[in-house]
């Protein structure tokens, strides 16, 4: 199947243009071609009325096209200014001029109203500020077309709003922003036009105001999606996890709500010998260079039927992998490296592997981060089935709508402690949001 099949996208100067689609729809391939990371088999890129060809990202940047990828390319031990000018340092008499670098970066920060200081060390910055450093790198190189790939995937709601303000300011100054995202409400809130891809083709295109969440979702997955599905309550049984501040019972989902950095990771790190879908799927949950089949064998590799007489059985490993791929709708070959799958398919694979263990307790962190609406529906359905089979689930999510949709009980973390608890009947976004901000007992 072609990754991009006769894709035509027209983007105007001074607009925020959203690109949407399911995981594996071809969005990243299209943007990689525009940025010079991949070469097209056919077709033409036209920039400011003239055909262009980029053999590398360096050529794209020289032509004014820059990209902020999901994995930031920053030097943590260097300052903001040093990261921004790296490779294009201002010089005086042949030597690096730190003063000129700081002044140039400070001017850009001021002009675009960013919450950064040139002398701050990148390692000390929150993730939203690091993303702004990546944007600054492109502005310093005078990029007038900025591609942002899933830019809100790791941001808090407040950081997302700040990013939107930056993007609106860039568009108002005449720059073009290509905003690649799965999130319907964000696309509707920030973009001027939207292009939707499905199976490598454009399935919808138009002014953002002509779409609704439902019509965007339908264009993405080719069917109607229930965006407001309310799942029935579970039937809690005996405890499967007991901590001084937290209990999870069989047959229930306990949701942990809270702004990132309020102790969720520390809480999860105290829990052992359970099935676990970690927040960092690439760094902790999988081995990117190993095949999908090998990744799906993790945790099963010392047990029958994957091993016999102390030796792994490749045919059984492949059969095991194919079973999980089919059951959880993972799009990809079991032989391909895990890291080459789209983010959503990596997530479905890891979730499928952990659910297949059948552990009494599943700890799942950010289960739908960077995942399209169709995959979200799939993941949520599997979690409900697992709960209804008598397992307990501890759900940690930055998506309040996800917490509200799935949880039988909701705990709020604030400044390292559980500050509030809500039954499903008591829970509403306003009360939980207040507790997340430290405003509730």
Automatic annotation (TrEMBL):
GO terms for molecular function: ATP binding. PROSITE patterns: ABC_TRANSPORTER_1 (PS00211), ABC_TRANSPORTER_2 (PS50893). This is ABC transporter ATP-binding protein. InterPro entries: AAA+_ATPase, ABC_carbohydrate_import_ATPase, ABC_transporter-like_ATP-bd, ABC_transporter-like_CS, P-loop_NTPase. Residues 1-224, 222-440 form the ABC transporter domain. It comes from Kibdelosporangium philippinense. It holds the Pfam family ABC_tran. Keywords: ATP-binding, Nucleotide-binding.
């Amino acid at each position: 199947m072609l990754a991009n099949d006769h894709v035509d996208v027209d983007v105007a100067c001074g607009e925020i243009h959203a690109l949407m689609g399911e995981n594996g729809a071809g969005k990243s391939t299209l943007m990689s071609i525009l940025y010079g990371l991949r070469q097209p088999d056919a077709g033409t890129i036209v920039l400011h009325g003239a055909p262009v060809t980029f053999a590398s990202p360096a050529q794209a940047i020289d032509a004014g096209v820059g990209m902020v990828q999901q994995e930031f390319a920053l030097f943590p031990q260097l300052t903001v200014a040093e990261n921004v000018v790296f490779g294009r340092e201002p010089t005086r008499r042949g030597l690096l001029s730190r003063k000129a670098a700081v002044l140039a970066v400070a001017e850009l920060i001021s002009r675009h109203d960013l919450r950064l200081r040139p002398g701050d060390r990148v390692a000390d910055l929150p993730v939203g500020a690091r993303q702004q450093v990546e944007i600054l790198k492109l502005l310093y190189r005078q990029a007038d077309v900025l591609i942002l790939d899933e830019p809100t995937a790791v941001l808090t709601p407040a950081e997302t709003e700040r990013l939107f303000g930056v993007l609106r300011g860039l568009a108002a100054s005449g720059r073009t922003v290509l905003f690649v995202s799965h999130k319907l409400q964000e696309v509707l809130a920030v973009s001027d036009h939207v292009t939707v891809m499905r199976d490598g083709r454009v399935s919808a295109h138009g002014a953002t105001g002509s779409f609704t969440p439902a019509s965007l979702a339908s264009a993405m997955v080719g069917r109607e999606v229930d965006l407001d599905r309310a799942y029935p309550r579970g039937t809690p049984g005996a405890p499967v996890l007991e901590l001084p501040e937290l209990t999870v019972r069989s047959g229930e989902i306990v949701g942990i709500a809270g702004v990132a950095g309020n102790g969720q990771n520390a809480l999860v790190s105290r829990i052992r010998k359970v099935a676990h879908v970690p927040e960092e799927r690439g760094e902790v949950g999988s081995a990117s260079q190993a095949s999908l089949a090998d990744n799906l064998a993790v945790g099963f590799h010392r047990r029958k039927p994957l091993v016999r007489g102390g030796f792994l059985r490749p045919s059984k490993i492949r059969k095991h992998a194919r079973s999980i791929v089919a059951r959880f709708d993972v799009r990809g070959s079991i032989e391909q490296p895990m890291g080459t799958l789209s983010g959503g398919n990596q997530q479905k694979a890891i979730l499928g592997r952990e659910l297949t263990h059948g552990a009494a307790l599943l700890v799942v962190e950010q289960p739908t981060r960077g995942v399209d609406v169709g995959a979200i529906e799939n993941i949520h359905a599997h979690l409900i089935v697992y709960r209804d089979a008598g397992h307990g689930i501890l759900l940690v999510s930055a998506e309040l709508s996800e917490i509200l949709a799935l949880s039988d009980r909701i705990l709020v973390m604030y400044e390292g402690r559980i500050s509030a608890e809500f039954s499903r009947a008591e829970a509403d976004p306003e009360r939980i949001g207040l507790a997340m901000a430290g405003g509730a007992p």
